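ARCHIVE CARD
Drawer: 12
Card no.: 0347
Subject: one protein chain, sequence and derived structure
Cross-reference: see card 0346
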Amino acid sequence: MLLSLTIKNYALIRDLAVDFTQGLSIITGETGAGKSILLGGLSLVLGKRADSALVYDKGNKCVVEARFDVKQYGLLPLFEKEDLDYDDELIIRREILPNGKSRAFVNDTPTNLNILSAISSRIIDIHSQHETLQLADSSYQFNIVDSIAGNEELLSAYTEGREEMKRLEKELEQLHEKEAQALRDHDYNQFIFQELEDADLEIDEQDQLESELDKLSHAEEIKSTLNQILEEADRESFGLNEILSSVKSSLSKIARYSDSYEALSRRWESLNIEARDLLYEVESENDQLVHDPAELERVESRLQLIHGLEKKHGVASIEELLNLKSEYAKKLDEKEQASERIEEIELEIKDLKEQLRALGDSLHKNRKAALPEFTDKMVKTLVELEMKNTRLRVSLEKGEGLLKNGMDELEFEISSDKGVTFERIGRIASGGEMSRLMLAVKFILSEYASLPAIIFDEIDSGVSGEVSNRIADLLLRMSANMQVISITHLPQVASKGQQHYQVYKKEAEEGITTNIKRLNDDERLVHLAEMLGGSKVTDSALAHARQLLS
């Protein structure tokens, strides 16, 4: 139930606050007084997109806040799902900042418009004059029938399953495209992979080969140098070995005379050992080094293969070639993986379709069972609304396709008078008839849906006389099950309200502003008299107003 509405700095509203109660509340006011502005402000907190052009004072933010009593309507699971704090008293606030940006809050927690819309659809129904046209829309007709048939859980399961099926079908389509591309590229990918596989590359191979090539290419020069070193060491006069041995002998003789001489002797001995070890390695390298044209050719050929692969694939190292090899191996695997996944998804889709068809069958049965009661109630309600000869026919045909609302094709048709053939709603119904048809639907739905509140924006448009009395009676009966707020221009409807609010314009220094007030008994009597006879209140108008209120 809507408890209160506060609007600041919106359109012609400077600062407005109004409290609402249970039952039937009526809102009236002259044309242009701002009733639609009031409704527009409420629509903001229910998820409508903000328009910065409607901010009254561009230097300050616009704030709209609504309080609802929601303790009986099972909203806790929705709040938990959206990670929002729940309280039996729900507060929704919208702010439009001077820079045009807007913010939304649920119980002081920032949120987005999608969540606002999800919440608002569970707590209030705003019926605008434009919504009457939805009665001819197939989706809206399904909503009506499913509400009466109690199909909410079935339809939720069907919708969720159908969305999963569409997701899988999209994935399947992408996999088929990937598989087809993999088939087109398979021979090329296989060739590249095999070429890199046959190369049998190793991560540090290139550096080792280049070092080996450098040595083999200069084998004669290296061998000549090593022989020269060995000759210098073994020369009889002033050779390295002779010099090392002579110095060693000399230091040995004087080592006993001083610790420092003994240290020198030991160090020279170490140098002598190291020099002989180095000469041994030089000799070993010299013995191992052989000028081998065949090995040189092998190393050059191997490096040529590696450099050719690097140039071909635009890389600079064996590591990158190995990474490339892994990529092509992955591409070859993707074809196999895609084929396996395609088989899995096709089975999943097959199972899902069977489940959806079962749900579609259940939806159809429930709808078919609910239609006689619905059409019977509609005819009875339309009789009350002075549409005695109007007949409603609902066509429900089950097909094979898994459609948005199940497997059914649904069509509302009416015959507006005796002898008139049935036609689709909207083709033959007038504006006043469409309003009454929609009111009849809402009245019947109020018996099934646990919606806290409904707001009618001139549901009585296009009618007068006794019809307006019937509409008023119907609204009053609806208010026994839910909070009903009706914006009206008819005094017959206004008189049935348990609370009556007047929207009016007020001229102030800052300009014209829209305001609202709850009328007391005396104010209401005068206001109804004005609605009946104009601004000049006559005794007969007052008497008529008293009669309406009695």
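Annotation on reverse: The radius of gyration is 46 Å. DSSP finds 16 helices and 15 strands in the chain.
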